[in-house]
Amino acid sequence: MPPRGGSGGRGGLGAGPAGGLGGAGGDGQAGAGGGVYLSLGTANFRTSLVSGNTATGGEGGTGGMSLGHCHGTHTTPCIGLGGNGGPSQGGGLFIASGSVSLANGTFFGNSANKGGAAGTPTVISNINTILASNNGGDSAGGGLFVSGGIVNLLGLTMASNNAKAGGTGHMQGSSLGGGIANAGATSFATDTTLIGNNTRDSSSSGEGPDISGAVTSAYSLIRQTAGASITDNGHNLLDVAPMLDPGGLHSNGGPTQTVALVQGSPADGTGNNSICQEAAPTGLGGIDQRGFPRFRPGDELCDIGAFEFVTLLVQPFQPASLSFGSAAVGHQTPAQKVSITNNQTRPVTLSRSITGADPADFIIVSNTCGESLASHASSSILIAFHPRATGTRSAVLTVSDSPDRTSPYHVMLTGVGR
């Protein structure tokens, strides 16, 4: 199916001396899978961002007009009904069947949009007309629509997706599952998955701002459970606000944008450690969507969702090292940067030092980091290699902050003197 359904055909004109009944408009076609449509097979989506996609149902066709009046009267026009609006399903992803795993990824800002407005007849000024409409189209699964198959969500963030029905008033369609709509999966399960801040059109009939349908969940956070039939396998956080970055998607490191947790989020440290440690494809392989470690010294609990919260982000992060190549003894290489960001909601005190085997061979040439770093502020350190002897040279940059249970942070420094 296309992400945007085609419009229904227009009804034919009524004919005859009395003016026959105008033909009904055709129904709009379905729009499905604004980002991806998966019809069959086995698929593993990992460390992916699905964002800003829309599935839109086609508009219902216009009802046909009468050339005269019903039953020979001069007061009753014969108008064919407008067609129903087409449904819209799966703004981000539509799964028709198959075995599908979605891991360490983010679905953000996708929409199953309006479902197509119902068609109405054309107004002709010298004939009495009525606006004869059928229903607006239904919408379901702003982020994900599952029609069938076996679907597992692992370490996923599903946020700020929307299902919006077509039509208005009593002609409006329904909206189901602003985040996810499960309409018939053989098995649909979540683990270490965050589903929150999704919406459906509250003026329409329907249910499930975050999830509509059956789901088996463990170690997952679901902001709004209304409309979902949940089999609780334990350690879930239900009807709990996720506390996500209100700015939405950002470049928080790694190859794709992510939605960060903020300090104090209930998702911090409440994921399934076994799934986080287990190798892909059945686990998360010890990393989040960005490729950052799920576990660090002082923080041995993984987080729910695709983003692992780090109180002080010191980059390069994975791997945490700078390699300067080779340089002649007594000559200095171009500087390389270490970036530091305080992700806490409070300021921290900062200190830094270079230690290890050859600390004098690595020089801090610039430092914008003072003795403290404000909440959500960043600073940087520029380091150059200036070998004092030949051979492999190494040292360690240590950045410490307080308060922070995961401090200190280390960046390995290497170079070769010649």
Could you explain the architecture of this structure?
With 418 residues, this protein is mainly β. The chain has two domains: 31-309, no CATH class; 321-417, Sandwich (Immunoglobulin-like). It is built from one helix and 36 strands. It has one helix at residues 273-277; strands spanning 31-32, 36-38, 42-46, 49-51, 54-56, 88-89, 93-95, 99-103, 106-108, 111-113, 139-140, 144-146, 150-154, 157-159, 162-164, 174-176, 180-182, 187-191, 194-196, 199-200, 205-207, 211-218, 221-222, 228-232, 237-238, 244-250, 258-261, 312-315, 321-327, 336-342, 348-355, 362-367, 372-373, 378-385, 391-402, 409-417. Strands 2, 3, 7, 8, 12, 13, 17, 18, 22 and 24 form a ten-stranded parallel beta sheet that branches. The chain has a six-stranded parallel beta sheet with strand order 4-9-14-19-23-25, with no helix packed on it. β35 and β36 (409-417) form a beta hairpin. The longest helix is centred in the middle third of the chain and has 5 residues, at 273-277. It is elongated and about 80 Å long. Mean pLDDT is 83; it is low at 1-26 and 120-133.
Report a brief summary of the structure.
This protein has 418 residues and is mostly beta strands.
Tally of contiguous helical segments:
1
| Main sheet: strands, sense, barrel | 10 strands, parallel
Q: Provide the helix percentage.
A: under 10%
Can you count the beta strands?
36
- The tally of structural domains comes to 2
Mean pLDDT equals 83
User: What form results from the Cα inertia axes?
Assistant: elongated
Q: Spans with pLDDT under 50 lasting ≥5 residues? A: 1-26, 120-133
Distance between the termini: 63 Å
Radius of gyration: 29 Å
Structural class: mainly beta
Percent strand: 35-45%
